[in-house]
Structure formats: structure tokens, C-alpha cells
Amino acid sequence: MINALFEQFVEASPPSVMMRALMERIFAPDKLDALFEQTAERQYTRELLFSSVVGWMSLVVSGIHPSVSAAYKALEKLVGVSRPALYSKLNGLEPGISQAFVRYRDAELRPLVEALGVSSEGLLPGYAVRIADGNLLGTTEHRITVLRPTRSGALPGKSIAVLDPQHHLVSDVFPCEDAHAQERSRLPQVLATVQSQQVWIADRNFCTADFLSGIAQRQGYFVIRAPQNLPWQALEPLQEVGVSPTGSVWEHPVCLATQQGHALPMHRIGVRLKQPTRHGDLEVTLFTNLPVEIADALTVAELYRSRWTVEGMFQVITDVFSCELNPLGYPRAALFVFCIAVVAFNLLSTVKAALKAVHGVGKIESGYPTSISLKTSRAPSGA
What we know:
Helix content: 40-55%
Low-confidence stretches: 366-383
Strand content: 15-25%
Number of helices: 13
Largest sheet: 10 strands, mixed
Radius of gyration: 23 Å
Structural class: alpha+beta
Shape: globular
Number of strands: 10
């Protein structure tokens, strides 16, 4: 009888069943609590398990409950801890725990996507592309005493997310509790994760001499938009090399002086746009150390256009999931919620990969709804 009932759910709503199965795997309490014990530096478990906090917040992020308070009211008898205990745990979660949560779940889901055989061929075959972009969390309510004297809404934090476009998964997140810090303050941590044969694509906020030279020293490659204030020296005159869908493409070899006194050889590529950008720019200039035999200037220009796929990811976690909760003013709590939304995006991408394997990539990408309802799934067993 149980199998018959299960088959009815599979037939009626296969995405919901797949999402439920993935959630039970990814949110397995023993794995979550083990991750917490391995990662936490100052926090420890007293009354409330980390897996229970994840269970609570997954219900809020997925829209099953509208707020942390509503989720607490619904599950208070099941968990048996006080409201202060919940908020104390949530507000104290270290950024390293949130980052480890995203990394570990990516490592769990990536083999599943690869086994389904629907991963993209890659923007540059033979190379692992990573697209990095920063995200500033929205303003929150003035519920914390120290925030009440301020007129504007408080900014609870920011982060750098790294998207793997081949598998459509967020592979890493670098959370920052100081919303007013520059993204560049997190570049040393990002640089430490760069591996050989990777191609990093990013906007001009990531373009520093140390970051570019660091990627090259790790046998990696970059396609990063050039800012106006980074000095470079031309080795040959600028020449037009072709036309891309967005405009004419120009290129010449240049070198960049690093703080260590070395000269970093690379190519400077300019795209003179047919239409101005949303900021009114008529030209986009890129730096890359990709050899011409691997990617010519036209290919590099197309690679940079793919950077907007990370904007699509941010749009999904904003529209489909609740990645920003207005009442959460504590940075650690807000960043943890954002990371749960990122994991939810990876779950959704995995479900879409399974659907593509059955129905075809074109059909899923063009017409299948991405906002799979999670309200048909119940709380993870850790909640």
C-alpha cells in the first residue's frame, strides 16, 4: 500500500518527490551536526543542534513559513527549546560555518549532476570556468537596539558567490559581516581557492594586480573587466580583430606591473558596443592571460558575456527563495539564511538536471517552470 501511495506522488508531482529526496539527503542531521563540529571555532552544542537550525531556516527560505518566528511557533513542541535559544544559536553562527555548508553541499550534489550526463559542454572546453560576483544583502528592520537610532535600514552583510556554469551550481561563498567593506577585502580568500586550468570571470571590482598575478601564479586564467585606475603598458598597438554580437572587438598585448616588481603579460581586449550598458558605458575593456591559441579575442568577449549567468542565480534565490529576511539584523544570521538559499538553488539546479536527462535540455530550459513548489515537501528530519 505504501508503494502504491508513493507511486501516486511520483506520477502526480515528480519534481516535488525529487526535491524531497534531495532535501533528506542534503539535510541529513548526522551529516549537518558533524559539519558543525568540524567547522565551528567558538560555538558549541548545548541545547540546540545545528541540524535543527538548518531545518527551521529551510522552511523559512522555501516559503513554507513566512518568518523565523512563525517556524518556531509551528515546531516548538517538536524541538523543545526556548525562543532565545533558537535566536542565540542563529545569531552566533560563524561565517565559516555558512561557507562550509555551501561547499559541502556542492560536493554532495556535483557527482549527481555529472552522473545524469546533462552538464554543459563548458564555456571553454577543457577548462573549468568560475564566475565570481558580489552580493549586498538588503536592508533590515531596526529590531536590534544598536540599530534603532539610525535613520536608514541596516545592511546586515555581503558576500562573494562563485558559480560553476557548467554544472549550474554555486561552488563557493565568501561571507562578510561588514556590509561596508570592499569586495576586494575578500580577494585573498578567493585567491586561495584558485586551481590550475580554471578560468575566472569577474567584473572590475575584482581587478587588482595582486589578484590577477595570483591567478597566473596558480596556473589559472582570468577574464576580468579592467578598471580605469589600473596602470598597464602597451606592447603593441591596438588592432581591430572582428565583430561580436555586441560590437567591434579590439585587442593588443600589454603587461601589468605587480607589487612584487614583476611584469605580468596579458592581453587587453576592448569591445566597442552597439548599445550602451545600463551604466551608459560605450566600451567594455577586459584583461585576460588566456593564450590566443586557447581563446582568441572574440572568444574572450563571449566568455565575459557569460558573467550575467551569475546574475540569473541571484535572481532565482531572490524570486523563488527567501534569501533576505527583513527582520534579521544580525549579520551572521542574515548571511546564514543567504547561504541556505544558495544551497536551495543548487538543489533546484540538480532537480532541473534530472528533468533534462528525461525530457531534454531544450525543453526544460525553454519552458519548464523553475519555481518548483517546495511547499509540498515537509520539514527535513533534522527539524
